[in-house]
Amino acid sequence: MPSRRRRDRSKTPEVNWATLPGGPDLAAAEPEESRKRPRSEEKTVPDVAESASEVDKEIALEAARHLEKVAWRTLVVKLAALRGDPKVEELLKEKHPELLGVPEKCGALGKKQFTLTEAKDAAKAWFARGLKGSSRHGPMEKANLCQRLTDSLKEHSAFLLRGTGPALLAQVLKEGRLESEGPLVATAFTKELEGSRYEGLWISRDGKGSFILGDDQEGSGLPACDDIGATIAPRIRVLPQIVNDQLVVDKFFQDGEDVAVPARVAVGPFLSVYFEGLSLKQAVAKWKENAGQRAANAAGKKPAMSEQDKIKALAKTLPPGWELRESRSKKGVYYYANPSKGLSQNERPKA
Prior knowledge:
By secondary structure, the chain is an alpha+beta fold. The protein has helices at 52-81, 86-95, 102-108, 116-122, 124-130, 139-161, 166-175, 178-192, 267-276, 280-289, 291-299, 307-315, and strands spanning 203-207, 210-213, 236-243, 246-253, 260-265, 323-326, 334-338, 343-345.
């Protein structure tokens, strides 16, 4: 590989698809919009602190929108990995018909027709139906709706992996059936990447024995270029295989080429070579060294978005020249400033 670039069926009962588990409530991470901060009478910026709560609400709304995007992306990635699974297809047809075909339109077969935002807009009927009866249909409620279905799909993924070993994976790769090869191989790859920087990677079957790793959709988190500025294709087509009782990336295709390049390495080190420019030896050593940390990351709960992260998310949406600043005398109170024009104000600046 270039420097760059046994299963017996488990007795465990199947997931009950009739009801979706509640799962962790994303609303717990929602900023408290109603919290009022104590204010002194001293002001260092004229008329700035009076409407500080409006800035706080804007920060909260931006954070909620971010969570909605993350939850929707996570759901689509999960649907792509499980594409073709009979249980999942049945669930979508019966309870979530608006989501049928979404992974394919977003690039599950290698060709992207929709961005994730466009796909979400096209599925607005699903959100409306899922939130029917709710008094609120905001971004946090939509994020929770996506999270509940994702949690149910994750339970099914865990069920698929119970009792899945090299022998079964070798068999399904040989047979090449969509309903078994796609979900089992994609889920096995997904499991290997838990707790790593590549957790949540897009993985989907695009043909018999062929899988896509990565995507160019918003939020992929994949590097667009290497340390010398050369472009890195965000999607790699790979051919998995069982080698020495281990699922590996046996071969892969360079962007725009039809000749397969040998790799024969586990998916984690493979991604480290492809995206980080490590040598194969370095990548394998790094992956082994970080095994304990990945396990800890996968087992631990992910922290809620910090206050600074919320502020940064909001600041990125401001017009050029504008900044979000914290009052010197009132910690936790923010206002908008444009240093080059000598302006400061409470209202969000317009482009």
